[in-house]
């Protein structure tokens, strides 16, 4: 009321500009998307991102690129490999999010008092993982730099997750990165467990 201007300048902006600013990881764009819009696609986005990740892992299996006869029974076994990769990707994502929640709750219990606080942070983390959708073009346009592209996509997703935590809980830069670090530690622990069990991850 005192400045006679909208508190959230993005209310007046075109959605394309908001999306560009979100891709640039601007905190104010994240605040607008999380608090001033009614986006309810976080669940579908999470499933689609997990499918993208499972598809990428499925392609990277040793013999998945070999041409086989369509009538061959091995084809169906390969489909089960895809479902297995989806399950592993889901468990890794769950352990990553669990590591973040445990760290934040341990460091700042007052930030996550109610169920709605947890739900808001979960939605923010799921929405900020939209960078995983870039896995599909990276696989389609496969070239010599694909591993480098995948590493950049991972870094971009982690930066987006950090911004989502900062905006949702109104924190400084250090604590979100600490939570993400412990999330990655727990996720890698799950990966090591699967490798010890003899599963391809």
UniProtKB/TrEMBL annotation:
This is Protein ARV. GO terms for biological process: intracellular sterol transport; regulation of plasma membrane sterol distribution; sphingolipid metabolic process; sterol metabolic process. Pfam families: Arv1. It comes from Chionis minor (Black-faced sheathbill). One of its GO terms (cellular component) is cortical endoplasmic reticulum. Keywords: Endoplasmic reticulum, Lipid metabolism, Lipid transport, Membrane, Transmembrane, Transmembrane helix, Transport. It comes from the Eukaryota. It is found in: Endoplasmic reticulum membrane. InterPro entries: Arv1 (IPR007290). The chain crosses the membrane at residues 85-106, 118-141, 148-169, 175-194. Coiled coil: none annotated. Belongs to the ARV1 family. The keyword Endoplasmic reticulum applies. The keyword Transmembrane applies. It is a multi-pass membrane protein. Mediator of sterol homeostasis involved in sterol uptake, trafficking and distribution into membranes.
């Amino acid at each position: 009321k005192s400045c006679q201007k909208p508190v959230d300048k993005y209310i007046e902006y075109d959605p394309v500009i908001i999306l560009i600013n979100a891709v640039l990881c601007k905190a104010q764009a994240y605040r607008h998307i999380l608090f001033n819009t009614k986006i309810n696609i976080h669940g579908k986005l999470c499933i689609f991102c997990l499918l993208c990740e499972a598809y990428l892992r499925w392609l990277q299996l040793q013999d998945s690129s070999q041409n086989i006869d369509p009538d061959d029974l091995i084809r169906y076994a390969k489909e089960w490999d895809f479902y297995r990769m989806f399950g592993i990707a889901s468990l890794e994502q769950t352990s990553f999010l669990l590591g973040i929640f445990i760290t934040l709750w341990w460091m700042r219990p007052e930030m996550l008092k109610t169920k709605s606080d947890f739900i808001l942070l979960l939605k923010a983390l799921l929405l900020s993982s939209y960078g995983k959708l870039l896995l599909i073009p990276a696989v389609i346009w496969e070239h010599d730099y694909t591993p480098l592209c995948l590493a950049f996509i991972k870094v971009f997703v982690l930066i987006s997750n950090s911004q989502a935590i900062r905006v949702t809980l109104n924190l400084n830069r250090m604590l979100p990165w600490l939570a993400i670090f412990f999330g990655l530690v727990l996720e890698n622990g799950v990966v090591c467990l699967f490798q010890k069990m003899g599963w391809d991850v």
